[in-house]
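User: Here's a protein and a ligand (adenosine-5'-triphosphate). What would the complex look like?
Assistant: Let me lay out the input and then the predicted complex.
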Amino acid sequence: MAAPAPVAMSAHHGMSGHEVVLLLETDPHRGLNGDEATERARRFGLNVLPQPAGAGLLVRILRQFHHPLIYVLLVAGVVTALLGEYVDSAVIFGVVFVNAVVGYIQESRAEAALQSLRAMVHTVARVVRDGRERTVESEQLVPGDLVLVEAGDKVPADIRLLRQTELRVDESALTGESVSVPKDDVVLPDPTVVADRRNMVHSSTLVTAGTGAGIVVATGAETEIGEIHRLVGAATTLATPLTAKLAQFSKVLTVGILGLAALTFAIGLLRRQDAVETFTAAIALAVAAIPEGLPAAVTITLAIGVSRMAKRRAVIRRLPAVETLGSTTVICADKTGTLTENQMTVREIWTADEWVQVTGSGYAVDGVLLTHDGRPASIETNAALRWTLLAGAACNDAALTRAGERWDIVGDPTEAAMLVVAAKAGLTPESRAESFTRVGAIPFSSERQYMATLHRSDRDDDVVLVKGAVERMVELCSTQMCADGSCRSIDRPAVLEAAEGLAAKGLRVLAIGVGPSGDPVEFTENALVGSMTLTGLQAMLDPPRAAATSAVSVCHSAGIAVKMITGDNAGTASAIAAAVGVLDDRTGTHGMVLTGADLAALPSEEFPEAVERASVFARVSPEQKLRLVEALQDKGHVVAMTGDGVNDAPALRQANIGVAMGASGTEVAKDAADMVLTDDDFATIEAAVEEGRGVFDNLTKFITWTLPTNIGQGLVIVTAIALGTSLPILPTQILWINMTTAVALGLMLAFEPKEADVMTRPPRDPGQSLLTRALVGRILLVSTLLVAGAWWLFEWELANGATLPEARTAAINVFAVVQSFYLFSCRSFTHSAWRIGFFTNHWLIVGVATQAILQLAITYLPAMNTVFQTAPLDVGVWLRILAIAVVVSVAVGAEKWLRARRTAQ
Ligand code: ATP
């Protein structure tokens, strides 16, 4: 078959479905055949959006110069050149250039890290090929493919609909309109604009309700969204609240420092000092006091945090989440699949006349049904049991497949478990198909809490089968079935009591019912109420995840409350919550279980208080999740909330950290989330919080490390000007120190492993500034010692016959060596460098060695001596420098020790 003409040119919305099928040479029911799909994939390429145009290399490098500090340096470079100080001027421009290159490389690496995360979250599409439905990666779709979409999906390509049922699509990605629009399959006039093309669904839009099937008419760059991507270019933003705050801070700082420098210059002139020297001093002050390495360090630390989280299976979709994670105070987690395995096995069946135990585990059809006295239970002698199994398996969309010894499931685990137990009793799909054909369905939804199907029996009668939450089913049923197949009035208290007993064991309980038979029966939600017969209950085990219990306890010791939010029943939820430690007598939250009904009945003024105290929320509807998040936020909490369904999207957006399930979640939920868990596991959220705290620690450590250099150097200059003496360090030397130490030493802190106690301290207050009072004290201590040390050595060397270049070289080496020593102290806020060990971050060793080589170069290489006006030093000077560094380290160690003692008291 020849591949069809390029598809994007045809106005598919203006054609009938049949015409589209003909044009694209496909089949409306069987789809493409596999060979043709392969051929088209070769011809049309992968269905991926084009990479955004992005800024070119030159623009990106030029962007590095767009910082207030760089302006200051550029002006300084030009003025220095005008004054005839060509070497100094060249050094300043050299530094600016190196700064731009380093900034560019870091920015590119950070962006690459974020880009690669996208590939970690796959989107899949349901496609019909060779007449068989299958799941493929969205990028494998080709024009002509027959694709099925349903609520929760992200539309994988531009598709002309052939069939649809109550399909609604959120097209905000394309049109900006956030209200979801209904779809149909009528032919539209050719000039219809994209937003009104009701018979099309477009790539990247989100299905919010209903189902549909249609033919792919455009993929990748040819889609409407592809066009937009190419034109606009979706830039990856590296900005977070913190980087914005720091950018603002550095602007204010620059202006302040410039003012101070101008004042210095004016004072110098008034004192009739040499204009060139005074100007040099003013520039020295400006370049000394500005922390050049800060923006780069923040970006790189965040980027490293993001990739560490990705390694632990938490994919960050929005960068600010990295910061927020560290201050999370409450995690609201789903039960099924997040705290539990979502691996269901039916363990017990209750019918009006008999309790049945089921043996076996997992989805393997290995096991038997036993009565309470250990005899095999028979579906021949107990009609209620037979119907409970039969209806559970027939009112069901899941499938079991067998590959050798392994059983796999397709679809919902709850439903798969019902297929397995039916098969254990001998009711195979083949035997069921003989007696029933499904002719209608009311699908399961979390709001409805049941699923109903209409079947035509072999005697041509219609029969309704229902399964769902027990509370909901006792409303639908007015009678219950006995072992002999007869019906009597339902004994609701007995049913609920049985269900509670099962739930208390942590089992998930579903009730099963059969409806009126006849020809025809009315198959609507209303007609079902009160007309059904309850046949029995199936109770299934969904084991808690192995890592959940320890992750919950880590959260508790980190001062983070964990709340379980589930659509399941209060009894089951409480039992599982107790098993994983969410409900714990010792934490004083025992008994705090609220149901959706309790929440609805709470007066609004009591709502936030009650929500804060409870730790299990059962039978909660997705709408109530949104209220829960808002209430917790009202109480000042930073909330992480998990979700997987379409209706969870508003709550995910409202939460400070919306967490979607990568494996089982819908595309709509992933789209609304800040973070996606590729393994759906609760422990992964805890791991991400841990990494988030680590990121913040490392940022703080960098700042605590870098500021003393800036403050110290600034103070040295100000003191020199005030005393009217010559500068102990020159502007170019200051630039050297700032640039080399920031890159070789400071950036290595971004690779610091997390401290052992990150998860034993309380969460950081999001409003709290980066620097606590204790850290400010530390910074001032080190700054003062640095100034004193550098100044003392400078004067001492001069007094002992050294030349000015020699004394200055000694002073700059004081800064470099003290900063190298201090780097090790900054690795922990509380512990000494000895306690952490010197080799736990190899990058630090590499950095210190590099800095040492650079310092030897600037001290001993003749060319460097000329450029930077330095001079070689003898061993005695180095010993004095080392002595100063040791004094500073001992002082910082003593300060940590004293503070620790004071806190312990
Ligand atoms: P979580 O919110 O923790 O994921 P959940 O999976 O129990 O919990 P829902 O999927 O909203 O939440 O299910 C709510 C209730 O509906 C269940 O407790 C169960 O009784 C019933 N139920 C679940 N799945 C089905 C299904 N496929 N068919 C019929 N009823 C179901």
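Summary: The domain at 345-541 is CATH 3.40.1110.10 (Calcium-transporting ATPase, cytoplasmic domain N).
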